[in-house]
Amino acid sequence: MRKILVVCLSVLLLLGLAGCGTEKAPAGNTGAEGEAKTVKVGIIQIVEHPALDAAREGFLAALKANGYEEGKNLKVDYQNAQGDQTILNSIAQKFANDKPDLILAIATPSAQAMASATKDIPILITAVTDPVAAKLVNSMDKPGTNVTGTTDMNPIKEQFDLLKALVPDAAKVGIIYNAGEVNSQVQVDIAKEVAAELNLEITEATVASSADVLQAAQSLIGKVDVIYVPTDNMVVSAAQSVVQVLTRTRFP
After folding, report:
1. Which helix (H) or strand (E) holds 110?
2. Helices 108-117 and 85-98: crossing angle, nearest 10°?
3. Same domain membership, residue 224 and residue 141
4. How far apart are CA 115 and CA 128, in angstroms?
5. Residue 172 and residue 129 share a domain
6. Distance of alpha carbon 215 from the chain centroid
7. CA distance 31 to 48
8. Half-sphere exposure (CA, 13 Å, Cβ side) for 28?
9. Greatest distance between any 2 Cα atoms in the chain
10. Global pTM?
């Protein structure tokens, strides 16, 4: 993954969090008795599905490996919006008011909601495709905001090369995505450029909710030769619907 760094968060993670679990707490991270204080972390997640859940679990495992463990010196407030933007915004405002030491925002919608809610609390992002396009940072080299983290941009050119290798006669590619997610739109725009170079035609099937995913997959059967699914949170949360349709029809 390509990383973006910001000084304030680097200091927090490397100095404020490192060395935890020892009898003597790091400077600036102690309570009245000199003991290590409990670090408060908020986690905001757009929806539950294995990839995003794994990102959250990996983050907590890394904290534990560095001496921060729930019930001891770490308090985690995990909130999931279940795909609802209104709930997501409410969670972001809650965290802005609670002022935890650090916020982990999982996926682009979560990161955008959280970044809009606070410009002061350090925000760590993951499962975000294009932090610049999402207006979370000024650039990949110098974020210039209270946001830092990692990007999960797909190797779209290589994926389409593989698509051509596996389905050499393919001429039309269907893409299922939520046009309301900037991360998905970025990937679709790149896919169109790549497809043009490979003489492939793109047909889009957009969804507004996870309930639309099944119908979107069905609508592409017979119209395209293969279906491509980007890292779209809404579509991936209902990925089983896509898999069932394509498996039943033996469709690539």
Report:
1. helix 108-117
2. 40
3. no
4. 13
5. no
6. 25
7. 35
8. 10
9. 71
10. 0.77
Reply yes or no on whether the pLDDT at 25 is more than 80: no
Tell me the residue type at 29: N
With vertex at residue 220, the alpha carbon angle to CA 158 and CA 152, rounded to the nearest 5 degrees, is: 35
The whole-number average pLDDT for the span 118-123 is 98
Domain hosting residue 117, numbered range: 2-151
Q: Of the candidates 128, 151, 174, which is a domain's last residue? A: 151
Q: Sorting pLDDT into bands at 50, 70 and 90, what band is 31? A: low
Token pair, residue 200, equals: 């492939």
Written as six digits, the tokens of 57 are 């679990």
Does 5 or 229 have the greater pLDDT score?
A: 229
Q: Are 4 and 151 in contact (CB under 8 A)?
A: yes
Tokens representing residue 35 in the block? 């003991």
Residue 118, φ and ψ in degrees, nearest 5: -150, 140
Alpha-carbon span 112 to 22, nearest angstrom: 36
* Beta pairing, strands 2-4 & 147-151: antiparallel
Handedness of CA 63, 65, 68, 70 (dihedral sign): positive
Q: Name, in order, each residue with C-beta under 8 angstroms of 1's C-beta and a sequence gap of 6 or more.
A: 150, 151, 152
